[in-house]
């Protein structure tokens, strides 16, 4: 394992073998029973199932009546999912913990599938599987579902980690965690009223190893019920705007706490100009979904200050064209992108500008929230591409000279 990542912590004295499942719930009385039934039907039964009720007002207690002898129940004032999970965490006495959502359903083999990689790889802090999704108020496991494959299964663990830094592609309901690792990173951030699961997965992945189990382990219910605790209650249609808000908190933490080597394609401290450029471009790509255009533009400009001579690698070309094409595009401003015109001074940087312009154009086309944003950002993409093209034509009409940035 790379020196920047450590083996998962040894279980503390008193941890016993097995899995504790923790289900935080808030006003999901109509969905919670199926979630619990699926957990009780596991081929490898959990040692404990704990439901922490975050101040529900919809008859959740009545919905739990059939499970009273098989499920532990706690209740707190409404304070958010992170606070609810943190309340239970100190009571978890098993080696593994599974934080499961109250509106999903687990496949019967889920624990069995997830625990196997952790037994085989004691250094891994968590394992995870894939999921499928369905829009229904009925039984999830018996409905026709749409499978959502994990797109990075063929990548190395390090590149899977980079992909997670970019986007939430590992779901908490589909991940089994070592309890000691969750405790060592400090539990959940209680200021994260949304996105607390993603925040936890990034904090674990940035410190420890992980393993993909290769199987679908749960089903996500797509529904339009409100999301979040009472302080951040929002409609399903507003979820991307709220996620973007809390993604910014995650991005700020990553910028503050993660060394640049965490973003290097080889995971090593970047010592050469080319390695520094690659790491800065990868960080720009990863944080563009969280901190917006301005921070990413700064990293991109600094990348080509480090090295404006070397031809772009295949991975650099990919992160450049993807950087500004993402689902949170509509929540960001792209005025800072005009600063990218500084890249006109060197051939390799101009190639990067063309790719960034194309990505900005496709981001506007795919994700802009209204025609004004679509037009303005799309036009900016064309301007960047056009400026790079004109400057490149000029290269052909003058003698070769230094291309230092």
TrEMBL record:
Pfam families: Glycos_transf_2. Residues 20-138 form the Glycosyltransferase 2-like domain. InterPro entries: Glyco_trans_2-like (IPR001173), Glycosyltransf_2 (IPR050834), Nucleotide-diphossugar_trans (IPR029044). This is Glycosyltransferase family 2 protein. It comes from Thauera sedimentorum.
